[in-house]
């Protein structure tokens, strides 16, 4: 047995004799055993967990079966302010589809056949603590909708009841499937993924952290050796080497079973044989040389080529080198093994820079990329690009350059950045808080411009006459769109009033005029919103502005672009920004009846409110300067200090630098 001291995490049930939850039991998980933080990959994971745990943010844990997702969730709970509350873990795939709602949210007596008494669901049972929804990808589509509402409203309604019951939990979701692919396959809701993916933890498989194998084996030897009166047992070197060279498709769970079986068959404290069942073909050796792997990749690509392989490989390689080196041509050339002049010649042939002189080159000239003959633009119905879309200036500019435009509508900024990060969108505009969240989640985008500050365009709106100051929001239901400019403004306003988000009841809602009705009827006590909805609220006699952003926030809008797209097609980015600037011309804005009509129609706004909002837009993208970068860095640092980001982010590293 190893004489090293290992950091082993054991769940409380094993330490305290198996405490169980006495309510609804179907779906409860109990398989988690132990994890270690010995391998460098695991030590990095532990540092991330230590940053995530103190906050109350929703966490999404992704990892193969057997990697210890529940143990990670328990670690987060144990190191959080909720550590003295319950930790409950349930498997979404274990529920019968007809009973899943009753299991999660509870039911009243007689609400369905067999419901002889009322029972709380898992959400209510976890009040004051943490609830882990394991295998969240197995949740039926209808339940995904209901779960989304629970996460937004922070309340549940039992089956057979109409009474809503507030909940106070931290939700952790876990899955072993690719939820992005499930979204594309229409099996998982994108808006639910956005709600869950506030903080993402990815668990490496055991084969990628071999430094954990030996200490885990030692732990299981101690655990099962004690149970079967074979104390102080240890692995012979040959047996340990066999464990270290196995690919572990079943991860920690498979290792535990192998050690358990070895102890059952052991004749002595020295275990010289371990039986490993090969459940799948061994993967190709990780140590295969670069040229072999590259040849294998090219053979596959040639077999499926559509005649543009050279163009795609060359353009992709050069673009990735530039992206890696933040657009610096000298460093990119060194990475590629070229001189700077050779790289510039290639860039000129790709149409990314203007050639310095005419002449032949040893590089074959590339045709315009077929992949980007269509530029994908994201817009929000109330945003700057919605007005630009209505007038058509971007379409005209890009069509004259040989490109067409694919406009795609989004409800708010975070989904736009999510789409940019996954490669679905090339360009969009969003607020400052959403961009910071996206950087924290590792989304590959650039800030390519910003609009002037508009602090008066965001405000807290109330209807209750008893709410006269921000301090009066304590304990109130405050509605806002999470990770929007409104979210950031609310945080600053509460701080100014000596409060924090823990002092209110957050209600996460996308921007919609129906919130004015919720406000007037008392369903919510305050609404944090921006223009043009703020203009509608100002005009509504039932509502009034409690405080606006002046003196609290800058409230900027940022133009953002997919990194690889910006590095590959800076000319298109400049065309888009110039087309937006065209909108600032008086003859365009003041005669843009189509734009005003589109804003009024899409948002169900009064025509005068829509016109006032439309004509207030600056349409003037400015380059990111040091002051703006410093402002955004301060906001990002505040979110990190508040525990809402998994790691500190660098705004400067995400600022676009032209070639």
If you had to describe this structure to a student in words, what would you say it looks like?
This protein has 659 residues and is of the alpha/beta class. 41% of the residues lie in helices and 14% in strands. A 5-stranded parallel beta sheet has the order 4-5-8-3-9. Strands 18-17-19-16-20 form a 5-stranded mixed beta sheet, sandwiched between helices. The longest helix is centred in the middle third of the chain and has 16 residues, at 309-324. The radius of gyration is 28 Å and the shape is globular. The protein starts with 7 loop residues before the first strand and ends in an 18-residue tail after the last helix. Mean pLDDT is 80; it is low at 1-7, 10-32, 280-288 and 358-371.
Give a short summary of the structure.
The protein is built from 28 helices and 21 strands. The strands form seven sheets. Strands 4-5-8-3-9 form a five-stranded parallel β-sheet. It has a five-stranded mixed β-sheet with strand order 18-17-19-16-20, with helices on both faces. A three-stranded antiparallel β-sheet has the order 14-21-15.
């Amino acid at each position: 047995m190893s004489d090293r001291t290992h950091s082993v995490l054991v769940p409380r049930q094993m330490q305290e004799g198996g405490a169980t939850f006495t309510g609804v039991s179907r779906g409860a998980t109990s398989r988690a055993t132990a994890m270690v933080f010995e391998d460098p990959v695991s030590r990095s994971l532990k540092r991330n967990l230590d940053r995530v745990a103190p906050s109350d943010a929703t966490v999404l844990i992704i990892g193969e079966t057997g990697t210890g997702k529940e143990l990670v969730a328990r670690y987060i709970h144990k190191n959080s302010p909720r550590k003295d509350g319950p930790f409950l873990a349930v498997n979404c795939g274990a529920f019968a589809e007809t009973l899943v709602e009753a299991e999660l949210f509870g039911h009243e007596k007689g609400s369905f056949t067999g419901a002889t008494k009322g029972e709380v669901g898992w959400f209510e049972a976890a009040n004051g603590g943490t609830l882990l929804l394991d295998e969240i990808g197995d949740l039926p589509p209808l339940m995904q909708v209901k779960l989304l509402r629970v996460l937004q409203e922070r309340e549940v309604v039992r089956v057979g009841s109409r009474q809503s019951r507030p909940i106070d939990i931290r939700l952790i979701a876990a899955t072993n499937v690719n939820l992005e692919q499930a979204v594309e396959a229409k099996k998982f809701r994108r808006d639910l993924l956005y709600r869950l993916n506030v903080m993402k933890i990815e668990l490496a498989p055991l084969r990628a952290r071999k430094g954990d194998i030996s200490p885990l084996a030692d732990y299981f030897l101690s655990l099962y050796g004690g149970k079967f009166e074979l104390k102080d047992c240890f692995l012979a070197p040959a047996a340990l080497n066999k464990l270290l060279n196995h690919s572990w498709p079943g991860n920690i769970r498979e290792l535990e079973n192998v050690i358990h079986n070895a102890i059952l068959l052991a004749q002595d404290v020295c275990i010289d044989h371990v039986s490993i069942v090969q459940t799948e073909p061994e993967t190709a050796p990780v140590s295969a040389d670069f040229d072999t792997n590259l040849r294998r990749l090219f053979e596959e690509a040639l077999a499926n080529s559509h005649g543009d392989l050279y163009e795609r490989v060359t353009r992709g390689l050069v673009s990735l080198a530039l992206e890696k080196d933040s657009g610096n041509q000298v460093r990119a050339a060194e990475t590629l093994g070229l001189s700077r002049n050779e790289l510039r010649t290639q860039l000129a042939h790709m149409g990314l820079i203007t050639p310095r002189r005419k002449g032949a080159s040893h590089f074959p000239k590339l045709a315009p990329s077929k992949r980007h003959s269509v530029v994908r633009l994201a817009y929000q119905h109330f945003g700057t690009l919605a007005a630009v879309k209505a007038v058509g200036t971007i379409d005209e500019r890009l069509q004259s350059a040989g490109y067409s435009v694919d406009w795609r509508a989004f409800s708010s900024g975070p989904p736009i950045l999510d789409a940019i990060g996954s490669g679905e969108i090339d360009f969009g505009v969003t607020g400052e808080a959403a961009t910071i969240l996206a950087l924290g989640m590792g989304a590959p985008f650039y800030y390519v411009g910003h609009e002037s500050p508009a602090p008066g365009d965001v405000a807290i709106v109330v209807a209750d006459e008893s709410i006269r100051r921000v301090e009066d929001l304590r304990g109130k239901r405050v509605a806002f769109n999470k990770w929007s400019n409104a979210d950031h403004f609310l945080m600053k306003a509460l701080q100014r009033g000596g409060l924090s988000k823990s002092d209110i009841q957050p209600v996460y809602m996308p921007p919609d005029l129906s919130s004015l009705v919720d406000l007037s009827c008392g369903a919510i006590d305050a609404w944090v919103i921006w223009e043009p909805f703020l203009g509608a609220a100002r005009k509504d006699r039932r509502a009034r502005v409690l405080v606006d952003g002046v003196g609290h926030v800058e409230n900027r809008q940022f133009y953002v672009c997919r990194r690889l797209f910006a590095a590959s097609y800076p000319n298109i980015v400049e065309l888009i920004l110039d087309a937006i600037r065209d909108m600032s011309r008086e003859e365009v804005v003041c005669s843009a009846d189509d734009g005003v009509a589109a804003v009024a129609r899409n948002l169900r706004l009064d025509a005068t409110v829509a016109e006032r909002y439309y004509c207030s837009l600056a349409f003037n993208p400015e380059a990111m300067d040091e002051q703006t970068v410093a402002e955004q860095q301060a906001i990002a640092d505040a979110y990190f200090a508040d525990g809402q980001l998994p790691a500190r982010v660098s705004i400067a590293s995400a600022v676009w630098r032209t070639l």
